[in-house]
Amino acid sequence: MNSPREKRHSLSTVTEEMKRVRRSTIGSLHSLQFEGESYPPPAAEPPKSPTPVYSVDIRNHESRASSNGSDEEGEEEAIDMTLVNQQPDPSLHLFSRRKKKAIIHLMAIAALFSPLSSNIYFPAIESISKDLHVSSAMVQTTISSYMIFQGLAPSFWGPMSDIKGRRPVLIATFTIYVIANTCLSQVKSFPVLFILRAMQAIGGVSTLSIGSGVIGDMTTKAERGGMMGVFQGVQMMGRSFGPVLGGVLSQFGGFRSIFTFLAAISGAVVLGLLLFLPETLQTIAGKGEVQTRGIYRPLGLKPPSYATQPQNTNRKKEKLSIAVFAAPFKFILEPDVFVSLFFGGIVYTVYSMISSSTTTSLQNLYKLNDLEVGLAFGANGIGCVIGSFTTGKLLDYDYKRTKEEQDAKSRDSKLGYEDDSFPIERARLRSAWIMIMVFGFSTVGYGWSLEYEKHLAVPLVFQFFVGWASTAIFNMNSTLIVDLFPGKSASATAVNNLIRCILGAGGVSVIDLMLEKAGEGTTFTALSSITFAASILVWIELRYGGIWRKKREMKLATKESPFPTA
């Protein structure tokens, strides 16, 4: 019988071996070296179905002293070694949490320009109308066109970044955005303004889908909600401060100064991307262990110490084709994706109709100038920023609660894996009902406060809650979409953006007519009613989303799905 000393030595040896196995798994090695053998064997042909990864669960147990009462044996820690057939979470990454946050902040600053370019424009509508000798309704069409291309462009850039890499596509498209703003600063005719606004949208909006792709590349589901909250919160500062900046610039420098400002600061951001943004697409950069080269390597950073593998330049590359760009649209055919996207699109449409009509409503009812209108937009924008950051924390909290309900202390969760039966839909949408109620009733209150011309502070308070609740719903919706397709998150986010912007553009194009015919109170009450009616889609997602997701995963496993595996 082994002595206590020999038992402790054996325990220590086994524990160290277990730690080494876990490190090798997280380090994304292709096989686990365990007791001198590799799995799978080097000569084995790649299996047709996903290869199971065997992990070890270490659990602490207490054992009593042996029957001879020896104090040396005391309490011992026993090892329960269990081979668990699990597929590792593809989001496990070697970047530290601090580095992930730094990358996400950089991406969020770049993504800030898409809402900024839209909202900074609102206070200048009347000034543009007078300067270019067109009606304000004509100027409103540039908002609709911006939203249409804002919806269409990510459907092209998202799939491209899923194949060619996040970094090169982002830098190229953001350069287009800088050029468009430079040209807009010199615009002198409405047709040119219309075309360049479309070009501005095409270049700037790529940051939204690619940013979500970067988050999907690096994060686990447990931390993704908070990271998405940071990403959305920083970019929503464009929605908050954009109209204020637009009002100041338009009031004192003319509307062209808006685009001069955008060109200057976006040029600085392009430089920051070149210097500090690493490639995160796992087919190129792995999970952080690959030393990237060329356009994929940030010019201002040295490779980290754990990046020890050379970049595989001979890897089989997926070719760009019509099928590749059409693939994201197939996401819409998945029922769980469709109901989530469509409800998010309804909320975004109502929100856009409120925002786009604010300038005309406030100037007509309260006789505000461009600067005052810009300041009035701050209430909505501040609500958006607060909504983003608070919802990020709420999403992480809801995820933790759901995880605890699903036995968070299981051995799979200890190793960072997640069972396929985990109800991710419930984790992301369990607080959605509160936000839907706040959004709907605030929309009604906003409409009737304008109808009865209440003090300016009243509609602005309602706008704050509209911004807060709508952004919370957007964050929940966006995070769920990334969860459903972690390997193709940029493409999935692009489709999400497409649905929102197409519906939003339609709403913006008719809001002036609705207000003219029905008035503010009736119009926004009707829009709120549509939102409440559409909320049944959230219930459908909670009830059936998990079932539909599991069916899709079964198809993926048997190669019957049109979607590439994550």
UniProtKB/TrEMBL annotation:
<feature type="transmembrane region" description="Helical">
    <location>
        <begin position="460"/>
        <end position="485"/>
    </location>
</feature>
<feature type="transmembrane region" description="Helical">
    <location>
        <begin position="337"/>
        <end position="354"/>
    </location>
</feature>
<dbReference type="InterPro" id="IPR020846">
    <property type="entry name" value="MFS_dom"/>
</dbReference>
<feature type="transmembrane region" description="Helical">
    <location>
        <begin position="102"/>
        <end position="125"/>
    </location>
</feature>
<protein>
    <submittedName>
        <fullName>Major facilitator superfamily domain-containing protein</fullName>
    </submittedName>
</protein>
<feature type="transmembrane region" description="Helical">
    <location>
        <begin position="497"/>
        <end position="515"/>
    </location>
</feature>
<feature type="transmembrane region" description="Helical">
    <location>
        <begin position="521"/>
        <end position="542"/>
    </location>
</feature>
<feature type="region of interest" description="Disordered">
    <location>
        <begin position="1"/>
        <end position="77"/>
    </location>
</feature>
<keyword id="KW-1133">Transmembrane helix</keyword>
<feature type="transmembrane region" description="Helical">
    <location>
        <begin position="169"/>
        <end position="187"/>
    </location>
</feature>
<feature type="transmembrane region" description="Helical">
    <location>
        <begin position="431"/>
        <end position="448"/>
    </location>
</feature>
<feature type="transmembrane region" description="Helical">
    <location>
        <begin position="193"/>
        <end position="215"/>
    </location>
</feature>
<dbReference type="Pfam" id="PF07690">
    <property type="entry name" value="MFS_1"/>
</dbReference>
<dbReference type="GO" id="GO:0022857">
    <property type="term" value="F:transmembrane transporter activity"/>
</dbReference>
<keyword id="KW-0472">Membrane</keyword>
<dbReference type="InterPro" id="IPR036259">
    <property type="entry name" value="MFS_trans_sf"/>
</dbReference>
<keyword id="KW-0812">Transmembrane</keyword>
<feature type="compositionally biased region" description="Basic residues">
    <location>
        <begin position="1"/>
        <end position="10"/>
    </location>
</feature>
<feature type="transmembrane region" description="Helical">
    <location>
        <begin position="374"/>
        <end position="395"/>
    </location>
</feature>
<feature type="domain" description="Major facilitator superfamily (MFS) profile">
    <location>
        <begin position="103"/>
        <end position="546"/>
    </location>
</feature>
<feature type="transmembrane region" description="Helical">
    <location>
        <begin position="258"/>
        <end position="277"/>
    </location>
</feature>
<keyword id="KW-0813">Transport</keyword>
<dbReference type="InterPro" id="IPR011701">
    <property type="entry name" value="MFS"/>
</dbReference>
<dbReference type="GO" id="GO:0005886">
    <property type="term" value="C:plasma membrane"/>
</dbReference>
<feature type="compositionally biased region" description="Pro residues">
    <location>
        <begin position="39"/>
        <end position="50"/>
    </location>
</feature>
